[in-house]
Design goal:
By secondary structure, the protein is of the alpha/beta class. Helix content is 22%, strand content 28%. Strand 5 (67-68) and strand 6 form a beta hairpin. Helix 3 (83-91) packs across helix 4.
Length: 223
């Protein structure tokens, strides 16, 4: 399984924590957050990482080079900001098996789900998390069969865990331009009835704001 990790954002909300680092490189214990992320997914069977990078991408490349713990790394570099959707589309050319389903991971969320239980339904499947109280995220509604029917309801406590499975054919008629994965691409797929969800009970954390970053650092126990 190949994995695209979206890590090219400006990370403005975390600048107060690490002003000179791109968000994926913020430290967690003794190594960058991205290293913990790749280490987990390597253990789940990922055999090729594609790092979608933009802001301070040179530091990411200097840190990892062409491999992580013997797993090959390729880079999809944004010369100008493309948004999460545009960055994903830009990364597709780096896939070694462009006809096979692939994993997409947000570079600022940690959601350690078992890959063996995450199966592609349709052309787009999201790993979902049930939170006690939704204060930050676009809530999701889905049918009993798992088809996602709405995205963006703050009253729903079912949220996107930042882990996706896609089939490459889903992007066949998508034009390369700057756009959002969450706000534009997913609603497009939902409208075409091609987006499904799988609920997991794994812990979920988003390090995108200082409060949650510090919480993750405090609570993180490797393995």
């Amino acid at each position: 399984m190949e994995a695209i990790i979206l890590g090219g954002g400006l990370g403005t909300r975390l600048r107060s924590v690490c002003p000179d680092l791109p968000k994926p490189l913020v430290p967690v214990r003794d190594k960058p957050f991205l290293s913990h992320l790749m280490q987990y997914w390597k253990g789940q069977g990922v055999n090729h990482f594609i790092l979608s990078v933009g802001y301070l991408h040179e530091k990411v490349i200097e840190t990892y080079g062409t491999s992580f713990e013997e797993i090959s790394i390729d880079y999809a570099i944004e010369s100008t900001p493309l948004g999460t959707g545009g960055a994903l589309l830009h990364s597709l050319s780096k896939l070694q098996n462009p006809e096979k389903p692939f994993l997409v991971l947000n570079g600022d969320t940690y959601f350690p789900i078992p890959l063996s239980e995450f199966h592609l339904i349709g052309d787009c499947t999201l790993a979902l998390h049930q939170t006690e109280k939704n204060t930050r995220y676009d809530g999701i509604h889905m049918t009993p069969s798992g088809k996602i029917i709405t995205l963006g309801d703050p009253s729903s406590t079912l949220i996107n865990g930042g882990c996706y499975l896609f089939h490459p054919r889903a992007f066949k008629n998508i034009t390369q331009k700057p756009f959002s994965l969450e706000q534009e691409l997913l609603p497009h797929f939902i409208a075409k009835h091609m987006c499904f969800g799988h609920l997991f009970d794994s812990p979920f954390i988003d390090i995108g704001i200082p409060k949650d970053y510090h919480l993750f650092v405090h609570n993180f126990v490797e393995n």
